[in-house]
């Protein structure tokens, strides 16, 4: 439809020339809809405004300026200001004042105080532009506009030469925006990381008290008041449509399923039956392919669905739509894939891990109550193992039979009254769930109640939350408890931290606690049992970030780190123990066995590695290279102890088998700097030494020749519970760099694309910390490689062997 044009005399064309049907209003640029008045408004080219009457179904004038002017002239009264608008409220007020005057009470009420809608800002960078100031302060509310020009009401103050001096006045449309601007922007930098000329920016209430005393209020004409009304209407409309004008400011909440993609025919049930480990490979392949389209937050495989269903959740709806476009109709493993956005009605089935575990127990003749008890014990299975080896029951009462159990009991336990022993342990978590599970379990009374320290919010697998925000609020309380335990020790060797490197609490808060304890006790030893994450066991995509940031801290603050690799534990359960679907209980069983073996020399009488410092002297040739691989033999699944009978040669063979190492690194790809073997049970020392010499002679290329006597052996006559003999291996091998390379490659793949980085920077971290952590871990890998390639011939020029003196005849 052609737009009507003004007549020759300048007046608007007849109203019949404008669109009369609301369906045509969208196509006419002069027509807009006011949400405030719930009406269509038409503005002609000469400035007149009309509103559409839905009852009369035609346009009617909103204000007739000529008619008003004629009326004012015709009915003008002397002594009355015709420019002033009179309302019904003002008439009522005037009548009340007249009535009061007649009664002799002519005092008027004080005028209503002016509402402040402006902020005064100082310390803005001198090169800041008008638009930049508008962008910063518009985040706190709608900025008022000039009546005629529509320009935001921001005044930039200048000096005598006309240069901006870093001060500005910002006027908001609503007074609530003033408090929000002060709360959000006061004492912050105008530009992130760049302080202003006087430091952080200062934002405060604008003070107009002096202005009201110096300047008399100006009268506003009727025409200006109309302009103000129109401008206010537009600003109110803008305020009401704030989220509509900027849809990116808030997340789209039209549907919580618009980021979830359903993929069908991605696998077959027969394929999963033949190879249970294929689940992880399929999920990894899908995650890798879909990550090309956007950030993938979760991948779930429904292994009970014949149609081979997998769900992929993206962080962005656009990426989900792109995934559907790319995957729908595509062939995967010879089958056509169906892809669509979820609508919330889907009900797919997958294996319930707890139910599967109960079914497995039923086949073995155990009941569910045993499984629930085992689940709780898995949380702190190491203390259950150690307590049993020292003859303690679930409440800490000694029921042992050997004096050797009591001889060094005080290394890990405090003696209390009633022949009861309490662990020297502090249990920490950022959420109460784990603590409640331990206290409710059969070993809950073993620990001192004051030594449970926990928060309420959790870390959400975010290293920054554990290290800088949530963990930082709790760490002082933890250090106080640790200090109290340390003061109760007669001869403090050091501290032993058990934590994971993949989560938010263990990795983030764990490394924070390590650094705090190091500050408090700088001359004591720091040993850690650190569980390295693996995608085979967990679906948390940010684990490489958490692990790399943690290794960066451990290099600097730890003296001994025993690396327990989830990937290696998973492979041992699958390949060696033939467990088709390993649970965390199976993995923790292996962890508790190796931790018990490593600490044997600390807890029972012996000469080798009898305290943490001696262990470091024997195992750490260079301070930064203190990351150990550990192993245990015989490897058995839970409940299979009594069916295993082993010999010293078999133990030695298993102990040095790469498949049985609890770090996913093959020692044959590196060289041992040092190693230690701890045998337990009724074992002949001569037989042990013969076997170790035999191993070293057959594998000389796997040991550096420039460190003499780099294999240590120890013997403890007390065997583990349920076994007649066992052996534990501790190795400082350069091949552990494979573990760091694996984590580093995963880290680099995400960091180069800045994937999930906002979760960390939102907690106050800087990208430079990621770069430093990556660089430090790469340096660690290079150092291991350097000493792996080193040979004794390189130092021959520096060190000349002295010739023996010949005796005179």
Automatic annotation (TrEMBL):
Residues 1-31, 91-114 are annotated as: Disordered. Its cofactor is Mg(2+). Its main location: cytoplasm. SMART domains: RRM, Tubulin, Tubulin_C. InterPro entries: Beta_tubulin, Nucleotide-bd_a/b_plait_sf, RBD_domain_sf, RRM_dom, TatSF1-like_RRM1, Tub_FtsZ_C, Tubulin, Tubulin/FtsZ-like_C. One of its GO terms (cellular component) is microtubule. Residues 117-208 form the RRM domain. Keywords: Cytoplasm, Cytoskeleton, GTP-binding, Magnesium, Metal-binding, Microtubule, mRNA processing, mRNA splicing, Nucleotide-binding, Repeat, RNA-binding. It is found in: Cytoplasm, Cytoskeleton. Transmembrane segments: none annotated. It holds the Pfam family RRM_1. One of its GO terms (biological process) is mitotic sister chromatid segregation. Tubulin is the major constituent of microtubules, a cylinder consisting of laterally associated linear protofilaments composed of alpha- and beta-tubulin heterodimers. Microtubules grow by the addition of GTP-tubulin dimers to the microtubule end, where a stabilizing cap forms. Below the cap, tubulin dimers are in GDP-bound state, owing to GTPase activity of alpha-tubulin. Dimer of alpha and beta chains. A typical microtubule is a hollow water-filled tube with an outer diameter of 25 nm and an inner diameter of 15 nM. Alpha-beta heterodimers associate head-to-tail to form protofilaments running lengthwise along the microtubule wall with the beta-tubulin subunit facing the microtubule plus end conferring a structural polarity. Microtubules usually have 13 protofilaments but different protofilament numbers can be found in some organisms and specialized cells. Belongs to the HTATSF1 family. Belongs to the tubulin family. This is Tubulin beta chain. It comes from Aspergillus niger.
């Amino acid at each position: 439809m052609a737009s009507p044009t003004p007549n020759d005399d300048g007046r608007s064309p007849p109203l019949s020339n404008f669109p009369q049907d609301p369906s045509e209003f969208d196509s006419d640029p002069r027509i807009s809809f006011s949400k405030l008045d719930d009406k269509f408004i038409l503005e002609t080219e000469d400035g007149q405004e009309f509103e559409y009457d839905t009852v009369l179904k035609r346009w009617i004038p909103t204000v007739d300026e000529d008619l008003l002017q004629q009326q004012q002239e015709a009915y003008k009264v002397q002594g009355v200001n015709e420019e002033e608008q009179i309302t019904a409220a003002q008439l009522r007020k005037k009548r009340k004042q007249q009535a009061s005057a007649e009664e002799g009470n002519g005092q008027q009420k004080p005028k209503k105080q002016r509402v402040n809608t402006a902020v005064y800002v100082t310390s803005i960078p001198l090169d800041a532009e008008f638009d930049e100031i508008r962008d910063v302060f518009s985040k706190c509310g709608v900025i008022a506009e000039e009546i005629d020009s529509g320009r935001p009401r921001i005044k930039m103050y200048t000096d005598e030469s006309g240069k901006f001096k870093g001060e500005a006045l910002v006027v908001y449309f609503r007074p609530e925006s003033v408090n929000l601007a002060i709360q959000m922007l006061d004492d912050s930098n105008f530009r992130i990381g760049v302080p202003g000329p006087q430091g952080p920016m200062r934002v405060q209430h604008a003070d107009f008290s002096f202005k009201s005393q110096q300047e008399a209020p100006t009268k506003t004409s009727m025409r200006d008041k109309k302009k103000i009304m129109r401008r206010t209407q537009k600003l109110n409309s803008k305020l009401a449509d704030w989220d509509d004008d900027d849809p990116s400011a808030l997340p789209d909440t039209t549907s919580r399923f618009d980021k979830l993609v359903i993929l069908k025919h991605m696998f077959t049930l027969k394929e999963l039956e033949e190879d249970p480990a294929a689940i992880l490979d399929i999920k990894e392949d899908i995650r890798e392919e879909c990550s090309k389209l956007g950030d993938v937050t979760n991948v779930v495989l429904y292994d009970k669905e014949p149609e081979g269903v997998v769900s992929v959740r993206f962080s962005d709806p656009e990426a989900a739509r792109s995934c559907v476009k790319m995957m729908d109709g595509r062939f995967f493993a010879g089958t056509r894939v169906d892809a669509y956005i979820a609508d919330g009605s889907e009900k797919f089935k997958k294996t319930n891990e707890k139910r599967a575990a109960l079914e497995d127990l039923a086949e073995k003749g155990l009941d569910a109550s045993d499984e629930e008890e085992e689940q709780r014990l898995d949380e702190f299975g190491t203390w259950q193992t150690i307590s049993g080896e020292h003859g303690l029951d679930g409440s800490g009462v000694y029921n042992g039979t050997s004096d050797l159990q009591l001889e060094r009991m005080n290394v890990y336990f405090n003696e209390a009254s009633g022949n009861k022993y309490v662990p020297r342990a502090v249990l920490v978590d950022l959420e109460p769930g784990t603590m409640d599970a331990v206290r409710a379990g059969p070993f809950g009374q073993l620990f001192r109640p004051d030594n449970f320290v926990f928060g309420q919010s959790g870390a959400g697998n975010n290293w920054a939350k554990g290290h800088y925000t949530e963990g930082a609020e709790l760490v002082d309380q933890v250090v106080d408890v640790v200090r109290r335990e340390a003061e109760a020790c007669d001869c403090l060797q050091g501290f032993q931290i058990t934590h994971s490197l993949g989560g938010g609490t263990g990795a983030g808060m764990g490394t924070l606690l390590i650094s705090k304890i190091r500050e408090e006790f700088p001359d004591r030893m720091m040993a850690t049992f650190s569980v390295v994450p693996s995608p085979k066991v967990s679906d948390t995509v940010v684990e490489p970030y958490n692990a790399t940031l943690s290794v960066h801290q451990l290099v600097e603050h730890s003296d001994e780190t025993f690396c327990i690799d989830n990937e290696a534990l998973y492979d041992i359960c699958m390949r060696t123990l033939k467990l088709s679907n390993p649970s965390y209980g199976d993995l923790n069983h292996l962890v508790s066995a190796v931790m018990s073996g490593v600490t044997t020399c600390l807890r029972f009488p012996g000469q080798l590695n009898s305290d943490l410092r001696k262990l470091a002297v024997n195992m750490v040739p260079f301070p930064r290279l203190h990351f150990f691989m550990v192993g245990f033999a015989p490897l058995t699944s839970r409940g299979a102890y009594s069916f295993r009978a082993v010999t010293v040669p078999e133990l030695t063979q298993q102990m040095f088998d790469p498949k049985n190492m609890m770090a996913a690194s093959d020692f044959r790809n590196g060289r041992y700097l040092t190693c230690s073997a701890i045998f337990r049970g009724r074992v002949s020392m001569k037989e042990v030494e013969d076997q170790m010499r035999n191993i070293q002679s057959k594998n000389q290329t796997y040991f550096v020749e420039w460190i003499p006597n780099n294999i240590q052996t120890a013997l403890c006559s007390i065997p583990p519970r349920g076994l007649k003999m066992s052996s534990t291996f501790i190795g400082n091998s350069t091949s552990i760099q494979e573990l760091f390379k694996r984590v580093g490659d995963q880290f680099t793949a995400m960091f180069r694309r800045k994937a999930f980085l906002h979760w960390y920077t939102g907690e106050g971290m800087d990208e430079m910390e990621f770069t430093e952590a990556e660089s430090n871990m790469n340096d660690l890998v290079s150092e291991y490689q350097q000493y792996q390639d080193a040979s004794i011939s390189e130092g021959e020029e520096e060190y000349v062997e002295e010739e023996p003196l010949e005796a005179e005849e």
